[in-house]
Amino acid sequence: MNNPVTAVILGAGLGTRMKSQHAKVLHEAGGDTLLNHVIRAALSVTTPEHVVVVVGHQAEEVQASVRVPGVRFARQHQQKGSGDAARSAQSVLDSKKGDAKDGLLLILNGDGPLLKAETIQRLVAAARQHGHGGALITTRLDDPTGYGRIIRDEYGHIAAIVEQKAGTPEQLAITEVNPGVYCFSAPEFWAHIGELQPTQPANEFYLTDMAEILRHHGSPVLPHPVSDNTELLGINTRVELAVADRILRNRKTTELMLSGVTIEYPETVTIDVDVRVAPDTVIEANVQLRGSTVIESNCRIGTGSVLRKCKVAAGATVLPYVIADNSVIGAGAHVGPFSRMRMEAEACENAHIGNFVELKKTKLGARAKASHLAYLGDSQIGADVNIGAGAITCNFDGEKKHPTSIAAGAFVGSNSTLVAPVNIGEGAYIAAGSVITKDVQPDALALGRAFQVDKPGWARKRRQSKR
Ligand code: UD1
Ligand code: CA
After folding, report:
1. I need a surface site. Which of 236, 283, 447, 452 has the fewest CB within 10 A?
2. What's the number of CA atoms in the CB half-sphere (13 Å) around residue 139?
């Protein structure tokens, strides 16, 4: 059996060049934080128990942002460089789990969100085959500015990695760079980590110096060149963040289209990494699917719609410009255009919600309809109910929210005002324009409005009086 891979992810740095109050690894691209993308990549070669994230700057926030259970954290108390960060992980590595002693030590910069699973898997295989000090990814860049340059020895192994700040003009002319993806031999690495010295002029401990140290001890590190350098971009500025975002979005739409989803004008849509969409669903231009949204098959999502943490069941139609958060759209339901759903709203199967209808914490039953201009809040609405245009649930008395229930088959006339808490019985009928303040019995008619008064000839007389 292969020895385990322990992954150490460096996420303690400040990220000065982001010009932000937030730690760099908390910034988002493709719908998740930089750090979560890197953790996801690490999990392609190991399990959460073998992942250690080194935190420092805004440690609590960074730790809270990690959504994978089981991942461990180590503190780097002062940001003294990537080498010092890696060393900080040692304190939490568990020799019982085989972490420190054997196997491979994958070290990833927390600011490289584009790395693909296959690439890490290939690096690990290369490191395993090479033995010695392990292997690290290299790539060529037309403009290598800012990256550590790879100096190879006569055997093609890594002699040294020279940082931008320390390089001679000849070294800085080298275009083969270190993207910050390392797979060391764990025993070799931990045996010699103590030999790192602060490097001038930055006075930091550079992780990159480990390649030279290990070679010196007869355990050279193998360069593992990767030609697709878009995978290896490190994010230091918001400009690079936007580049990474575009690449991740493009990957997501490509993956969905290849799996059977139609996306019109894919360059205009924004789909987060965790979103799932089933085949034969059509996504129109300028749609945003955010968070953990799941869309089943044969749905249509209309242009301009923004769905966050929503579930859309098979065959549902979302017309243009629907804004929905944390809500459920049932099978065959029709929602939109211009509808709003929020706080666990649900439109059950074959329900209809039309323009300028808002559902908040409200369940609209199967085949029920609210086709125009309504606010339905804190309500349970049964099957086959019809909500007329302009109907409002008055769920807030200025201090507290109150519930409304409307039983199956009821008819709520246009412009009705239902003052909660209130219950409308099954099959009841609310006359248009009513203000309903008391419960309505099943099958009753409730009328809560002033009666109409007709004054014959009144209008004619008024006109005549003005002559
Ligand atoms: C680093 C590499 C460089 C490589 C580049 C790739 C070093 C010395 N240099 O440079 O060779 O080409 O990445 O993107 O590593 N970190 C800590 N604690 C610290 C300092 C950094 O945890 O005290 C973390 C950061 O959060 C980041 C990673 O280490 O995730 C790399 O640090 P960064 O400052 O971005 O290094 P670069 O200058 O980009
Ligand atoms: Ca960096």
Report:
1. 452
2. 21
CA–CA dist 428, 406 (Å, integer)? 9
Please indicate whether residue 180, judged by its CB atom, sits closer than 6 Å to ligand 1. yes
The reply to whether ligand 1 has any atom less than 6 angstroms from the CB of 85 is yes
pLDDT at residue 14, as a whole number: 87
What is the arithmetic mean of pLDDT over 159-185? 96
Q: Which of 82, 115, 175 to mutate to test ligand 1, by most ligand atoms within 8 A of the CB atom? A: 82
Q: Is the CB of 261 under 6 A from ligand 1?
A: no
Distances, alpha carbon 203 to alpha carbons 8, 166, 197, 234, in Å? 23, 11, 9, 22
Catalytic residue check, 192: no
Q: How far is the CA of 110 from the centre of ligand 1 (A)?
A: 8
Would the pTM count as exceeding 0.90? yes
Instruction: Point out the catalytic residue in the list 22, 192, 372, 402.
Output: 372
Report CA-CA distances (Å) from 48 to 91, 95, 179: 17, 16, 23
User: What per-residue confidence (pLDDT) applies to 208?
Assistant: 97
How far is residue 53's CA from residue 165's CA, in Å, rounded to a whole number? 27
Instruction: Give CA angle at 73 (69, 77), nearest 5°.
Output: 160
Mean pLDDT within 345-349: 98
Q: Which atom of ligand 1 is nearest to the CA of 180?
A: 6
pLDDT band at 11 (very low <50, low <70, confident <90, very high): very high
- Ligand that comes closest to the CA of residue 210: 1
- Asked whether the beta carbons of 316 and 299 are under 8 A apart, the reply is yes
For 234-263, write each residue's pLDDT tens digit.
999 999 999 999 999 999 999 999 999 999
